[in-house]
Write a structure and sequence with these properties.
This protein has helices at 72-77, 108-121, 139-152, and strands at residues 7-12, 17-21, 24-29, 35-40, 50-53, 66-68, 90-93, 96-97, 128-129, 131-135, 154-160. The protein has 163 residues and is of the alpha/beta class. Helix 2 packs across helix 3. The longest helix is centred in the last third of the chain and has 14 residues, at 108-121. The protein is globular, with a radius of gyration of 17 Å.
């Protein structure tokens, strides 16, 4: 592997920013690295509240996608969740998880929301250095948040050899 002695380019904030849309609230604060705290809650007896702070990408990488059973048909009609099935996505019904064998963690749902948020952040094209606190995030609002973040961010440089 060839190492390069070049500074890496990042997007960073000079001051805090806040984004709100519907039930979603995402705040970002200046930081020297990416930190994410995520809080989710649903009006569902099985999945009311979960929270997690990201410490290591390995903590979230295996987290499975999840859907509420009443959403699946509408998602497929919109051309979404086409690869989703009971074999690879967690399905939640009124009485609980329909395929519990897929659950790897008791907080799998918030782990997956962090994974989604990181994926949406990477659409920025460069790494982000910020402490992000996300309440009830979702792809659509995450993407709007990233666009707002980029309007307020400055390019910074640091780390060598991909660090």
């Amino acid at each position: 592997m060839k190492e390069f002695d070049a500074l890496r380019e990042y997007y960073a904030l000079k001051k805090p920013m806040h984004f709100e849309a519907g039930k979603t609230r995402i705040s970002a604060y200046p930081s020297d690295h990416l930190e994410i705290k995520c809080i989710i809650g649903f009006d569902h007896q099985f999945l009311r509240f979960q929270q997690m702070s990201l410490k290591d990408l390995n903590d979230i990488a295996p987290a499975k996608a999840f859907y509420f059973d009443y959403e699946i048909e509408a998602l497929k009609k919109k051309g979404l969740a086409l690869g989703g099935s009971m074999d690879n996505a967690i399905v939640i019904a009124l009485d609980g998880v329909q395929n519990e064998g897929l659950l790897r963690y008791n907080n799998e749902f918030v782990r997956h929301k962090i994974l989604d948020l990181i994926g949406d952040i990477y659409l920025a094209g460069k790494p982000i250095k910020a402490k992000i606190v996300a309440e009830k995030p979702g792809h659509q609002n995450n993407i709007v948040f990233v666009k707002e973040f980029l309007k307020k961010a400055v390019k910074s440089y640091g780390g060598r050899n991909g660090q």
